Amino acid sequence: MEPCITAGTGIEETGFGYTMSLVSGKYKMIILYWLAEYSVLRYNELKRRLGTISHKTLSLSLKELEAAGLVQREEYPQIPPKVEYSLSERGRSLIPILDAMCIWGEENRPGGKGA
């Protein structure tokens, strides 16, 4: 396998850097994980699952994930407004990577399976 990052190459010029630019941030990968787990979540359901996230941070993270083509936002014209979020096909393609991170973490964390 050819290395993704090579000496003299700026990280932003690599596939790794591009991927990280889309999912970096405290909550983005967790948002993707919850959407993968539940398929469709409304804003308040997602906020409850994330716990301590502020309205501003969740709103900005969702907008950035949507702009990156990873999350789809479906707005229903009703009173009160109903908005649902789900993974796009592009977002679903990241799930095997998140799953691999979960497996690695379980195998390597202190007290985990591999410790």
Automatic annotation (TrEMBL):
Residues 4-113 form the HTH hxlR-type domain. Keywords: DNA-binding, Transcription, Transcription regulation. GO terms for molecular function: DNA binding. Pfam families: HxlR. PROSITE patterns: HTH_HXLR. It comes from the Bacteria. This is Helix-turn-helix transcriptional regulator.
